[in-house]
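Marked as duplicate of an earlier ticket. Keeping the data here for the record.
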Amino acid sequence: MFTPKRKTWYERQKRRKSLPFLRLIDRSFPFRFVLASIISLVLLATVNRFETCRAKNYSSNCVLFDSLSIISVNNVEAFSIVTAALIYILEGGRRKQQEHKEEMELLMEAKEMGAVISLSRIRALESLSEDGLWLDGFDLQGANLEQLDVPHTRWRGTNFAKTVLKGANFHQTDLIGANFSDADLTGANLTGADLTDADLTRANLTDANLTGANLTRTTLTDTNLTRTKLEQTISKKD
């Protein structure tokens, strides 16, 4: 089974959901607010005690002396700023989820409009795949995805038919069952990629690098393999 080398955002999120405390942080804004407020109060109290003790040459009773001095008008602004900053940090996961939603909507809109060239689509695809979201079965037929950079990701059954993928980076990518028929993969990096059951019929692989790729049951009918590197490729028998 294909597994990326590093932990992705999605895998880290799945781990967070298994921990009740972190799950509560993600789901409850009141809890995030209370937690941020407590942390802010502790930080401001620590800074206040440090300044007080320094002014008193770190006398033995300075830590407990006048401990309520932190509650003052002068500290309200600092407390608000620190609390807001902590809430922003604690809501990082929710912002990322919203970002993924917007990227998926962008991809669907580009498909519906029939857009061929779209740099924002390439960035969206790279962002989603880098964060560990699988794009299995996605339809990218006829799109221009030149220089697409998605190593160590998963695209099982994705439709790349007639897609321009010049110079694309699919290093150690899971491409099981993907359709690359009539695709332009000139100069693409497919080293270590899993192309089991993939369809490369009439694809242009000129100067492409397939070193160490898994070509088990890969269809290579009328494929252009001019100067294609095929060293150490794998082709298992059924």
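See parent ticket for discussion. The chain has a mean pLDDT of 84.
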